[in-house]
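=== RUN LOG ===
request id: a7f3
mode: sequence -> structure
chains: 1
length: 89
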Amino acid sequence: MLTLIEYWYYWESFKRNCNSTVNTVLYFYSINKCDDCQAQGHILSFLKTKNPTKLMIFALDSDEDIYSINLLKRTFNVTITPTHIVTGK
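=== RESULT ===
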C-alpha cells in the first residue's frame, strides 16, 4: 500500500510540474463494509483498459490501519466507501 501511495504522489507531482493531462483516481474501498465496492472496482478496471495512458487508478483499502492511508482519508475527508478522488477532488 505504501508503494502505491508513493506512486500516486509521483503522478500528482508529475502532473503539476509537467502539465500532464493524465487523470488520477484515488479509490478508497472496503472489503468488509461495502456492497458496491467490488462492482465499482470492475468499472474502474474497465475504464483503465479503455484509457490506459490517460487514467491512473490507485485503489486503497480504507480498512487498513496504515498512517498514510489514514492521512489521505483525513486530507480528502473520506468518511464512507466507496469514495473516488479524481484528480485531487
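=== NOTES ===
The helical segments are 2-18, 37-50, 67-75.
Residues 2-18 form the longest helix (17 residues).
=== END ===
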